[in-house]
Design brief:
Shape: globular
Number of strands: 0
Helix content: 55-70%
Strand content: under 5%
CATH class of the largest domain: Mainly Alpha
Number of domains: 3
Order of helices and strands: HHHHHHHHHHHH
Structural class: mainly alpha
Radius of gyration: 21 Å
Distance between the termini: 63 Å
Length: about 230
């Protein structure tokens, strides 16, 4: 295309690439189709999605038109991500809410991996990162009781469960907490009922849609098991 790169990607550029990919998937557009519709060369597009350089403002409008969305719709997720990254980090969840979210993560982990015991696995994973979590502290966390567990400890726990750290640190964060909660509900419902639905097939749904899917899975469980109930 002969276009000049616009420098090493910063946080916003990386968030923009993620937003493009998310919208592309939700709209059912393949990457080759997007590249062709936007008039980019494959090398130009992939060099930017790999993080070697960044898209410029002309590209933003071109990609938005290729995806069939407004520039605002395309930029909004990246803006939200920037706000998340730079939000104050000193907010702590109330112990009861933290315990509720941890119990949901444990339920998901048990559904995925019945062994070893979750508390042992969590504490072992934290120990590898140089963070020690006593069994009594873990029990108090799950019970929704106050502890001296630090935010860094909770970030390590979030990493173990493969969820954004904000899920264990922030009361609410649009686009993160609700979506994590909803996806956990679907995963737990799938594991509890044995209904054969691929979790990836619902990854593009909204939190409300995911919660409806989880309810539908549980409602369908008796017939899926052969009508034993």
């Amino acid at each position: 295309m002969g276009r000049q790169g616009s420098g090493e990607p910063n946080e916003f550029s990386r968030a923009f690439v993620d937003a493009v990919d998310d919208i592309r998937i939700r709209r059912g557009i393949t990457t080759p189709a997007l590249i062709a519709q936007a008039g980019f060369s494959r090398g130009y597009y992939y060099k930017r999605t790999r993080g070697e350089t960044s898209f410029n403002t002309n590209d933003v409008q071109t990609i938005a038109e290729a995806l069939g969305v407004s520039v605002g719709e395309l930029l909004e997720p990246a803006i939200t991500e920037m706000e998340r990254l730079h939000a104050p980090r000193n907010e702590r969840l109330e112990p009861a809410l933290l315990g509720y979210r941890l119990r949901k993560l444990v339920a998901m982990h048990v559904a995925r991996t019945p062994v070893p015991p979750v508390d042992s696995a969590v504490r072992a994973a934290l120990a590898k990162r140089g963070r020690l979590l006593a069994g009594a502290d873990w029990d108090r966390l799950l019970a929704g009781e106050p502890t001296d567990v630090t935010s860094d400890d909770l970030r390590a726990v979030a990493d173990f469960f493969d969820v954004p750290s904000e899920y264990l640190l922030r009361t609410a964060l649009p686009g993160v907490v609700d979506l994590v909660d909803a996806r956990l509900e679907v995963e737990i419902a799938l594991a509890e009922t044995g209904v054969g639905i691929a979790a990836r097939s619902v990854n593009a749904a909204s939190p409300a849609e995911l919660l409806a899917i989880a309810e539908a899975i549980r409602a369908a469980a008796p017939s899926e098991r052969g009508g034993n109930e």
